[in-house]
């Protein structure tokens, strides 16, 4: 019985030491992993910048479109006035 307890105790101690060693001595990222992380970070920032540029361009184009639609309405009204005057002039 003493041998069993002693063997179990030693086995448990060794298992605990191995467990602590494996968890406590985890390796950090290597150069390649750090480079990949920096590359991914740069790509994400570039994508965000491009998205911002595209949103700005979209806003500018929507403003331009609104101005052109307003100008078109003004020209349609002017065309109606000219058409009416021509019709009156012809009578």
Offer a quick outline of the entry.
The protein contains two helices and no strands.
Structure description:
The structure is a single chain. The chain has helices at 2-24, 31-90. The protein is mainly α and 91 residues long. It has a domain at 42-91. The longest helix has 60 residues, at 31-90.
How many beta-strand elements?
0
Q: How far apart lie the N and C ends?
A: 128 Å
Strand content: under 5%
Describe the global form. Answer: rod-shaped
Rg, rounded, reads 39 Å
Uncertain stretches: none
In round numbers, the mean pLDDT is: 85
The structure class reads: mainly alpha
Main sheet properties = none
Estimate percent helicity: over 70%
Q: Element order, helices and strands? A: HH
Give me the number of helical elements: 2
Give descriptors for this structure:
single chain, 91 residues, mainly alpha
Could you give the topology of this structure?
Elements: H1 2-24, H2 31-90
């Amino acid at each position: 019985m003493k041998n069993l307890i002693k063997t179990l105790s030693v086995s448990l101690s060794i298992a605990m030491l191995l467990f602590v060693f494996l968890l406590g001595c985890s390796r950090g990222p290597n150069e390649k992993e750090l480079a990949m992380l920096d590359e991914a970070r740069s790509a994400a920032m570039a994508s965000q910048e491009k998205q911002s540029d595209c949103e700005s361009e979209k806003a500018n184009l929507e403003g331009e479109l609104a101005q052109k639609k307003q100008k078109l309405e003004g020209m349609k009204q002017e065309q109606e006035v000219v058409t009416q005057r021509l019709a009156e002039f012809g009578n």
